[in-house]
Design a protein that fits this description.
single chain, 3 helices, 0% strand, globular
Amino acid sequence: MIEGSSINVESINAPKSMVGIDFSDHLNYWNNNLPALMITNTSFYRNKNYHEPTDTPETLDYDKMAEVVKGVYWAIVNMK
């Protein structure tokens, strides 16, 4: 559990060479020597609808998404 949220969180500090670690928009920042953070639920490994025609609003878990936002907000506000 992350403070400020009821969602379970796993963390990894992985090298750029790890397959899939650069499958998001943060890659453009890395390529320009800017620090970037990726927050993911690894959806394409778990959700058959990801980036498919069936990837529609009713297939999303909005309650879980809200918990992620709350947790990220808490982490940012409480950064040291």
